[in-house]
Amino acid sequence: MKTRRISWLATVFLSTAALGLLVAGGASAQQKPSPEDLKKHQTTPGGQYEPSLDVLMEKEVKAPGAVEGVPGLTDAEMQRANEIYFQRCAGCHGVLRKGATGKPLTTDITRERGYDYLAAFINYGSPAGMPNWGTSGELTPEDVDLMARYLLNEPVAPPEFGMPEMKASWKLLVPPDQRPTKQMNDLDLENLFSVTLRDSGEVALIDGNTYEIVQVIETGYAVHISRMSASGRYLFTIGRDALVNMIDLWMDPPQTVAQVKIGIEARSIETSKFKGWEDKYAIAGAYWPPHYVIMDGETLEPLRIESTRGYTYDTGEYHPEPRVASIVSSHFAPEFVVNVKETGLVLLVDYTDLDSLKVTSIQSERFLHDGGFDASKRYFLVAANARDKIVVIDTKDRELEAIIESQGIKPHPGRGANFVHPKYGPVWVTSHLGDETISLIGTDPENYPQYAWKVVETLEGQGGGSLFVKTHPNSTNLYVDTALNPEPEIASSVAVFDINNLEAGYKVLPIGEWSGITEGQRRVVQGEFNKQGTEIWFSVWNAKEQESAIVVVDDKTLKPKKVIKDPKLITPTGKFNVFNTRRDIY
Ligand code: DHE
Questions:
Q1: Distance of alpha carbon 452 from alpha carbon 62, whole angstroms
Q2: ∠ CA 463-54-522, rounded to 5°
Q3: Which atom of ligand 1 approaches the CA of 371 most closely?
Q4: Which of the four pLDDT bands, split at 50, 70 and 90, describes residue 53?
Q5: CB distance 269 to 300 below 8 Å
Q6: pLDDT band of 572, cuts 50, 70, 90
Q7: What residues are annotated to the active site?
Q8: Atom number, ligand 1, closest to the C-alpha of residue 49
Q9: Closest residue (by CA) to atom 21 of ligand 1?
């Protein structure tokens, strides 16, 4: 069953605390920790949200050669262990097992620790962040045994994917000279929504006025995000399998005009937006291989690949696989802002001359993930989530502006939310995966210098497991989802704050209940406003074979206005309104 794939591997593997717990006082490595200690080992929502390398996990592998003193694996065991590793472990410990947010698991380390130690660790986890895979029931005792043996063998290096492979995958389905010269359909394109149908490998284009599904378009697997060209004509999607689709919204009906695969695992896509460079280029970032690729904005022809392999900003250690996380397009310079997770570098990639690429590399903080602009679109705020920090980049002066403690555990803003606070002026908001904190950060150094780049206020939300916050310039509400909260009621509802009366706390909108769906987990995720800012859409995200829906909420009355249901609406997750996405309004 291919349902939601959120890996449960977390941070530190060989922590001293856990080592002490397992071997202290000569206790056997497999000795069961006390019930008190076991509680500390349980995984939190913050620890659950780690990359799952779904494409690499399906790669065919063979049993490793025999090594003296190391337990062997059959071909079938190797295949199964590799799947588990890429789904649950690689997000933290790295594709090559050389460490990322988690510690390295190379054979020099694992063989020294030995089978018993590894099996106990996988079974019980550690209070420092390693999930309790065995005792939580996520892995069977057989799987725990298998993974301990797998880790004693050499890792399998996944294939590289360079220009020859990209070029071979590139399909120009409708060349620019065969495309329409004006909009051929009568859709209100600015109020169209591109909705990820995660597990069916499609996006649905939904009319924001009539709520009708206009078109379902085949894409890569589990599209992560949709982004718009500056002109608003082309829609770009990126699948987890790194397949980029370029959809021409002027065609009747809208359809894919070009495709290219830019790697093996990917999450981000963006287009050039600076004046004079509109629609000229697209850029996509990959998790594997670790690189970004600049493409022609009309054809998707890959033009330039740049590797992100290199040195961590702080310790200067070589990192073989720094993943590309979020990418945004500067409005103040002809540059892309590329966030590299493991090295903690923010790259300002100047796209004016692709032959002599100029890249400004800003040292910031490690494990950069998602983020968005402030309301002026000058400052880009991005979560360094494993360090509980928000990094602020000034895209006008092209430098680091600030690094702020987010005041909660594991900030996860999506693109964040901007509003004018009655006391602190313009603020940008993030919620957190690890706890209920919602942090408001002052973003106007000119008019409110005393509040700029400070957490000026924190709100208490429904709980941890929050992924996305949202508001709109025409709204006075701030919406906070809690899609990954372990409590079904919290995961299927949304908290809404009145921006002009934040002290009053939040109201709960029971979106899952409003959807009328009674089966499944009903995770309610990612609010997205319509163009006018009068209604907000939430996905009710169920497993693939269960019913899902989109619930449209009236922003004034906070009542449900429409429930969009359709057999084609399979596992809807992210929704991207053309106008808001194109203008970076959130
Ligand atoms: Fe996302 C944004 C990575 C899991 C839905 N997600 C992003 C971005 C990154 C990212 C780097 C920012 C892209 C940009 O702005 O250029 N996401 C990851 C992961 O590594 C992670 C933790 C695990 C994984 O294996 O992918 C992960 N993400 C998820 C989910 O489980 C979600 C809920 C459903 C899914 O598709 O798997 C999910 N991520 C989203 C959405 C956005 C996003 C909807 C864009 C939100 C927005 O409003 O901009």
A1: 55
A2: 35
A3: 15
A4: confident
A5: no
A6: very high
A7: 89, 92-93, 130, 369, 412
A8: 22
A9: 51
For tokens 């995966």, what's the residue? Answer: 433
Q: Which residues contact 176 (CB under 8 A, 6 or more apart)?
A: 298, 299
Q: How far is the CA of 14 from the centre of ligand 1 (A)?
A: 28
Taking only the tens place, the pLDDT of each residue in 156-168 is 888 999 999 999 9
Enter the tokens of residue 203: 């996006």
94 CA → ligand 1 middle, Å? 18
| Pocket perturbation via mutation, ligand 1, pick of 267, 431, 573 by most ligand atoms within 8 A of CB | 267
- What percent helix, strand, coil does the chain show, rounded to 5? 20, 35, 45
User: Encoding tokens for residue 477?
Assistant: 């509400």
- Going from the Cα of 189 to the center of ligand 1, the distance in angstroms, rounded, reads 25
Reduce the DSSP state of residue 11 to 3 states and report it. Answer: coil
Structure token pair of residue 359: 């890249």
- Mean pLDDT, the chain, whole residue set: 91
Which tens digits make up the pLDDT trace of 76-106?
A: 999 999 999 998 899 889 899 988 778 899 9
Q: What are the tens digits of pLDDT across the range 291-300?
A: 999 999 999 9
Which region, left, alpha or beta, applies to residue 6 given φ > 0 means left and ψ of -120 to 50 means alpha?
Answer: beta
5 exposure class (CB count in 10 Å sphere: 0-12, 13-18, 19+): middle
Beta strand 225-228 pairing with 213-218? unpaired
Pocket test for ligand 1, best of 338, 370, 482, 581 (most atoms within 8 A of CB): 370
Q: Helices H, strands E: what count in the chain?
A: 12, 35
Neighbours of 103 (CB within 10 A): 20
The share of the chain scoring above pLDDT 90, in percent, equals: 82
Query: Which residue type, as a one-letter code, is found at position 72?
Result: G
Give the mean model confidence (pLDDT) for residues 221-242: 97
- Output the DSSP codes for 95-148: TTSS-SSSPP--HHHHHHH-HHHHHHHHHH--TTS---TTTTTSS-HHHHHHHH
Q: Cα of 343 to ligand 1 centre, how many Å?
A: 19
Cα atoms found within 13 Å of the Cα of residue 533, Cβ hemisphere only = 13
Contact 216, 203 (CB under 8 A): yes
CA 130, 136, 137, 142: dihedral to nearest 10 degrees? Answer: 40
- Whether 176 has a pLDDT exceeding 80, the answer reads yes
What is the pairing mode between strands 494-498 and 477-481? antiparallel
> Closest residue (by CA) to atom 38 of ligand 1?
224
Q: Supply the residue whose CA is at minimum distance from atom 18 of ligand 1.
A: 51
Ligand 1 geometric centre to CA of 167 (Å): 26
- CA–CA distances in Å: residue 517 to residues 340, 417, 533: 39, 29, 26
Structure confidence by residue, pLDDT tens digits, 379-404: 999 999 989 999 999 999 999 999 99
Which residues contact residue 491 at a Cβ distance below 8 angstroms, ignoring those fewer than 6 apart? 465, 482, 483, 484, 485, 512, 521, 522, 523, 524
d(CA 103, CA 11): 7
Cα 449 to Cα 454: distance, rounded to the nearest angstrom: 10
pLDDT at 553 > cutoff 70: yes
